[in-house]
Amino acid sequence: MYCPYCRHTDSKVVDSRLTDDGTAIRRRRQCAACGRRFTTAETASLNVLKRSGVAEPFSRTKVINGVRKACQGRPVTDDDLAVLAQEVEEAVRSSGSAEIDAHQVGLAILAPLQRLDEVAYLRFASVYQGFESLEDFERAIDTLRHERQTSPVGHQRPLGAN
User: Fold this and answer.
1) How far is residue 26's CA from residue 47's CA, in Å, rounded to a whole number?
2) Measured between alpha carbons, how far is residue 44 from residues 11, 28, 159 in Å?
């Protein structure tokens, strides 16, 4: 870890604390050369295993970009997408695994996207789940209707949404 002020490589930890949600550690460090203090954050790495076998770090930006096309023309804001990506990351991190299959990330997107916007959900699901016929769409729409009817509060967007 380089000091952000003098680029010296040696520093000592002065204080360590868990973040509010417990997913990271915040450390106060002091540079051994210049004596200035700075803060670092440590998080456990989470890798996504692609179909090709390549592993790459989880990226909220990739989640947002993957969902953005399905949300085109829908009343979904960038803030809505950021919240969705955070929810997806929390869901995949809760598995407790350091590596997760890309398919699992896609599945983790479906539920929050359905709550956010049903049309965007259908668009995303149609590509992600490989809909091949009108019957596939009809089944998905019937499932949405059934869930809406049996839900105690009906379909609602998340709090803070437009």
Assistant:
1) 21
2) 21, 18, 29
3-state SS assignment for residue 5: coil
> Per-residue pLDDT tens for 18-46?
886 677 899 999 999 999 999 998 887 89
What is the spatial distance between Cα 159 and Cα 126, in angstroms, rounded to a whole number?
26
pLDDT tens per residue across span 68-78:
999 999 999 99
- Those residues with Cβ within 8 angstroms of residue 139's Cβ, 6 or more apart along the chain or in another chain: none
pTM: 0.68
Tokens coding 143:
């499932």
- Alpha-carbon radius of gyration of the chain: 21
Sign of the CA dihedral 59, 60, 61, 63? positive
What is the residue type of 30? Q
Structural element, H or E, at residue 125: helix 118-128
Distances (CA, A) of 62 to 36, 81, 86, 118, 137: 36, 11, 12, 21, 26
